């Protein structure tokens, strides 16, 4: 694989510059890399740089990461859409990569090796095994060579590659194809894996007394990787090979759990990392293959219990304890729970496992003070890295499933004991109170939880005597870890706190927003944000269902809003909280609910714009930035609509930073900027200022639409302009330009939604006099695409668009303009696509639009009223009735889903992507406001039509409408007092 040296040097320079603190240099380098990515052989150049020993390690690592991500995005998938083929890696590049990747991985440094291993897994996820048959035999052959040579380092590299390869079996959906792939892997790899495992185990036994951690660490790593692969290959089902050789595996597993190594080796952590992997495998077998594993269960419970009792200085002991406790929890929840059922065993669990692991450790305090983001992630978000506290409480909950009263008594006594210790010496025993609150959080029933909680304390009394005093304490800056746990308690049980109580406590919580601890003010912000999204079930008698209504509305939050906003703004200036997503999310939520006026509007707008100017220098926190734009959208939306006079101030504040985003090509923010621009345009009154008209010109540039992530936001902006200046389209060739852009979007399945949204916007806002010269061009583009794209999603969008044309311009224009393309084309479209897909339309407005349009076709179109079209008429009516027979519960569910969607989705990384700003959204217009009920519109229209030709339509209905739909139609006629004669 030859890559020109000058290309490698150029890439290395760009990657080095991409890590520069200088924003301009960094952006220039990123632009160079982005431009090079479009050229053939770019992936090979990345791989070549990652493997090049003569270049800087940081540049090589950056190239390896880029290579991994490139393969994830652009490696050809077997089921890839033909529209996306242009974005995929060429087959020739893929073939070269597959030939060289494994060998380059083996010779790379560890950091780069890890990235290349993930890259291999990304390619293998698409091609292995069917289109990469040589991969696994190559790994097995190389493993044999490495083991024979006693080369543990090479063995580990190969095992790491295999582990990446087999990881897919852990979480993939079980199906026949997956099982065939697993069978193939087992036939080739199961026996060699056991050989390598036993080889490494013998190597470890031979050197068991060696006190040199560096010598033994690779052997422990080899065994850990074997255990990781064991887990993957056993995840779907118990393979015959592993069942036949279970005794060999289990004997070695038990030896690893019960053997002690010299203190320097134990302190290194490698033995505990291996033991943790063993415990993961034990839990897998306990959960999935309990019958086959039963013979080994008691001895492993004793071995794991013994590990938890042993004291060690190992840095991996915490993770081992988590996995060990998890295994014991699985046993406690199983039919073998009697192993822990005696009072002595339970007390020992509580005293020796739960309580020691529940109390805050020195490491927790260090994390709290030194890495607050990770502390919050572990403590309250349920991160992948489970904590000892959560694991210990889960074990208690597991026991409570079968021994509820005994566990409740033990824990209740423990909580009282901890609270008594705190009362005796508050200054030194605050950790006891912290642990007591944590126990209550873990074991009490929470709203929406299933299975019931364990009644440890009287919740009302506990809340009044333990929680409220901490919230109202004068020394609110003291014991920050305890204050954080108290605020977490509030968050966990927020639904159960009466509204009046929560509002009374709010001032106490608000002051914690300016607490010097990042965790404390983050937890206070999270509680306030979570409080404001609580919804209560409200019965809707008319449709015999329930909807969900916000518990807290503007009137509730308005008295507190100025102080909350001020405190959040202050906290955002604290060290390490400049880009705190919890603070910004809380601010966003308050601004989206409260009514703010006067000077506070200008102050918070200026503050948010200032923050945005700062993050433009280095957009590194996607969640924070998303909530920042949401907060801006909330201020603009709520205050701008109430007071249009604020618009000039918003424009003066926002235009400089939004223009900076476009001019400096801060691509991560483009989708957000266009949505904010759309919001400002929506609030403006024609004639629009020169600034907006310049933006309109940028919008109509083809280059602006070349970035797919920006397209939905651009369509929103175009929609806003068309609402304000529809008549400007027939100037300067603007409409043909828009239609050309829509054709380009229509050609790709990933952007066809936006194409239809654009066309819908045109029809909604632009009169027939302007659109008429171009309507044939639109139909030609749509029907050409229809020939190759007949997916339900596309056809449904087409039916909605045709319905819109009919409602806006009339059925005659719809039929004649389509038939102008080809005689009788409309009847073919109606029969093949409109009628079959009408019943599949979703969305309240879409259902109403298509039902009314179809009814107009039935009752107004000469094509359908022709006697020769009786069958077509009957089939269309049948589809309309099917569409309108959707239950009220379905519609209520849709409304609930829409209402809940205001909660903001978490972004998933920092690739440029479109993320909808909920607060910048504008509800879709109902073009048929005059039609209150499409069902009534149908039957009254039919009644009027049939009255003009008595006796004509009854036989058609009898012959061509499904019996169930005939019955439904009769019920509708009775309900609305209409008759079809």
Describe, in plain words, how this protein is organized in 3D:
The structure is a single chain. Strand 1 and strand 2 form a beta hairpin. The protein has a two-stranded antiparallel sheet. The relative contact order is 0.03. The protein contains 50 helices and two strands. The N and C termini lie far apart (80 Å). The longest helix has 31 residues, at 176-206. Mean pLDDT is 89; it is low at 891-912. With 981 residues, the protein is an all-alpha fold.
Summarize the structure.
The chain is an all-alpha fold and 981 residues long. 70% of the residues lie in helices and 1% in strands. β1 and β2 form a beta hairpin.
Indicate the mean pLDDT.
Answer: 89
Low-confidence stretches: 891-912
Radius of gyration, in Å, reads 33 Å
Percent helix, as a range, is 55-70%
User: Reading side by side through the largest sheet, how are the strands ordered?
Assistant: 1-2
Report how far the terminal alpha carbons are from each other.
80 Å
Structural category: mainly alpha
- Sheet-strand content, in percent, reads under 5%
Main location: cytoplasm
GO cellular component, one term: nucleus
Subcellular location: Cytoplasm; Nucleus
Keywords: Cytoplasm, Nucleus, Protein transport, Transport
């Amino acid at each position: 694989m030859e890559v020109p040296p000058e290309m490698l040097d150029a890439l290395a320079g760009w990657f080095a510059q991409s890590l520069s603190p200088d924003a301009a240099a960094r952006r220039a380098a990123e632009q160079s890399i982005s431009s090079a990515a479009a050229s053939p052989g770019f992936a090979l150049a990345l791989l070549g740089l990652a493997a090049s020993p003569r270049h800087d390690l940081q540049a090589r690592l950056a190239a390896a990461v880029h290579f991994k991500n490139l393969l994830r995005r652009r490696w050809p998938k077997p089921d890839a859409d033909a529209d996306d083929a242009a974005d995929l890696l060429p087959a020739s590049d893929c073939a070269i990569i597959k030939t060289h990747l494994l060998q380059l991985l083996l010779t790379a440094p560890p950091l780069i090796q890890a990235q290349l291993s993930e890259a291999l897994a990304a390619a293998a996820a698409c091609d292995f095994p069917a289109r990469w048959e040589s991969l696994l035999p190559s790994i097995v052959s190389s493993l044999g060579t490495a083991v024979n040579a006693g080369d543990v380092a090479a063995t580990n590299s190969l095992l790491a590659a295999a582990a990446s390869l087999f990881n897919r079996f852990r979480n993939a959906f079980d199906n026949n194809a997956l099982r065939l792939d697993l069978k193939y892997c087992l036939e080739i790899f199961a026996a060699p894996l056991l050989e390598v495992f036993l080889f490494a185990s013998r190597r470890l036994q031979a050197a068991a007394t060696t006190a040199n951690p560096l010598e033994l660490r690779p052997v422990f790593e080899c065994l850990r990787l074997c255990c990781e692969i064991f887990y993957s290959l056993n995840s779907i089902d118990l393979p015959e090979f592993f069942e036949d050789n279970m005794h060999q595996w289990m004997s070695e597993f038990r030896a690893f759990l019960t053997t002690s190594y010299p203190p320097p080796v134990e302190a290194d952590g490698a033995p505990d990392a291996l033991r943790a992997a063993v415990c993961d495998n034990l839990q897998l077998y306990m959960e999935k293959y309990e019958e086959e594993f039963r013979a080994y269960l008691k001895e492993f419970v004793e071995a794991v219990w013994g590990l938890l009792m042993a004291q060690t200085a190992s840095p991996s002991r915490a993770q081992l304890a988590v996995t060990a406790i998890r295994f014991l929890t699985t046993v406690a929840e199983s039919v073998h729970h009697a192993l822990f059922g005696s009072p002595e065993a339970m007390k020992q669990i509580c005293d020796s496992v739960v309580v020691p692991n529940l109390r805050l450790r020195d490491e927790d305090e260090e994390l709290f003070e030194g890495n607050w983001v990770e502390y919050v992630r572990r403590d309250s978000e349920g991160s992948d890295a489970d904590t000892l506290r959560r694991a210990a409480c889960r074990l208690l909950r597991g026991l409570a499933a079968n021994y509820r009263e005994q566990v409740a008594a033990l824990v209740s006594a423990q909580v009282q004991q901890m609270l008594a210790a705190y009362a005796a010496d508050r200054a030194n025993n605050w950790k006891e109170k912290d642990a007591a609150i944590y126990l209550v959080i873990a074991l009490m029933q929470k709203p929406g939880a299933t299975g019931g909680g364990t009644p440890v304390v009287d919740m009302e009394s506990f809340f009044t005597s333990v929680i409220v005093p901490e919230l109202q304490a004068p020394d609110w800056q003291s014991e920050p870890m305890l204050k954080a746990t108290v605020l977490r308690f509030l968050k966990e049980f927020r639904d159960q706190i009466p509204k009046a109580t929560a509002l009374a406590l709010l001032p106490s919580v608000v002051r914690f927003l300016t607490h010097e601890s990042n965790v404390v003010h983050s937890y206070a912000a999270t509680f306030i944000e979570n409080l404001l999204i609580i919804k209560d079930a409200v019965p809707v008698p008319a449709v015999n269902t329930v909807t969900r209504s916000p518990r807290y509305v503007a009137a509730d939050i308005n008295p507190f809003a100025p102080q909350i906003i001020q405190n959040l703004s202050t906290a955002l200036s604290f060290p390490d909280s400049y880009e705190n997503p919890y603070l910004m999310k809380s601010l966003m939520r308050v601004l989206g609910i409260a009514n703010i006026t006067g000077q506070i509007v200008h102050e918070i707008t200026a503050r948010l714009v200032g923050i945005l100017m700062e993050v433009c220098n280095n957009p590194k926190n996607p969640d924070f930035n998303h909530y920042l734009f949401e907060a801006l959208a909330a201020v603009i939306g709520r205050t701008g609509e109430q007071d249009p006079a604020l618009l000039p101030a918003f424009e003066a504040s926002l235009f400089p930073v939004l223009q900076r985003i476009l001019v400096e090509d801060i691509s991560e923010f483009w989708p957000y900027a266009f949505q904010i621009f759309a919001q400002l345009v929506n609030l403006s009154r024609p004639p629009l200022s020169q600034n907006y008209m310049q933006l309109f010109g940028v919008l109509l540039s083809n280059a602006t639409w070349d970035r797919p992530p920006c397209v939905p936001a651009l369509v929103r902006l175009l929609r806003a302009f068309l609402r304000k200046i529809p008549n400007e389209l027939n100037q300067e060739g603007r409409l043909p330009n828009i239609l050309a852009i829509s054709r380009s979007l229509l050609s790709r399945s990933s952007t066809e939604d936006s194409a239809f949204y654009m066309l819908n916007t045109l029809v909604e806002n632009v009169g027939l006099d302007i659109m008429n010269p171009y309507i044939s061009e639109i139909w030609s583009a749509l029907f050409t695409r229809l020939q190759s794209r007949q997916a339900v999603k596309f056809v449904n969008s087409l039916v909605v668009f045709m319905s819109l044309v009919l409602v806006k311009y009339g059925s005659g224009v719809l039929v004649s303009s389509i038939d102008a393309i080809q005689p009788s084309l409309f009847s073919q479209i109606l029969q093949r696509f409109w009628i079959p897909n009408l019943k599949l339309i979703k969305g309240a407005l879409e259902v109403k639009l298509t039902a009314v349009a179809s009814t107009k076709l039935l009752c107004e179109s000469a094509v359908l009223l022709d006697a020769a079209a009786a069958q077509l008429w009957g089939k269309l009516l049948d589809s309309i009735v099917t569409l309108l027979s959707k239950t009220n519960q379905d519609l209520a569910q849709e409304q609930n889903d829409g209402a809940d969607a205001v909660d903001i989705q978490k972004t998933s990384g920092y690739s440029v992507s479109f993320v909808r700003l909920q607060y910048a959204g504008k509800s879709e217009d109902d073009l048929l406001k005059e039609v209150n009920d499409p069902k009534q519109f149908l039957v009254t229209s039919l009644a009027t039509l049939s009255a003009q030709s008595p006796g004509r339509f009854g036989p058609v209905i009898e012959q061509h409408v499904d019996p169930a739909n005939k019955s439904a139609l009769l019920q509708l006629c009775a309900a609305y007092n209409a008759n079809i004669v």
